[in-house]
Amino acid sequence: LEVRLHRSLRQYPDFPSPGILFEDILPIFADALLHQSLIRAVELRVDKESLRPDIVVGLEARGFLLGPSLALRLGAGFVPVRKQGKLPGPVETAAFEKEYGKDYFQIQKDGIKPGQTVLIIDDIIATGGSAAAAGSLVKKLGGHLLGYLFILELDFLKGREKLDAPVHTLLSSQEEGASKT
Length: 181
Prior knowledge:
Blueprint: H1 2-8, E1 10-13, E2 20-24, H2 26-30, H3 32-48, E3 55-59, H4 63-74, E4 77-83, E5 91-98, E6 101-108, E7 117-125, H5 129-140, E8 144-153, E9 167-172, E10 179-180
Parallel strand pairs: 2-10, 3-4, 3-7, 7-8, 8-9
Antiparallel strand pairs: 1-2, 4-6, 5-6
Helix pairs in contact: 3-4
């Protein structure tokens, strides 16, 4: 499965800005069998690590492709973390630095109840800024952060060092080169 997943990734140089080598996971979702295998592999990883979340938090936007399916398989709820201005109602906000600028994430204030256990999922961990911001939002709402789960880790950017809960990944990055996301 690892080989099939790696082969399905596409790379786009200088996207979304010069010097970035963008890792595109979307071809995985165009292949029904590979998509199903990916979700099952993520579910098995959660089981192996004995994670029992009440809530799966998915980061905009590709975390939305993984989070709801995983949450259903685990019997958990799903809560999105979105870019600023995209969620209705009262929200909490966290700023973060990305490899190509500053951004803001938000979560609805009633998305996580105090004491609920939470697993954050996204496609790729690069610098760790967006995941760290999501983790801070979970904690602001009183959630207990079990960890982070990613399909791909760009090891050379050392993003996991910014995270204050266990980090689980299915794949590791290729060689260091241009910055990647």
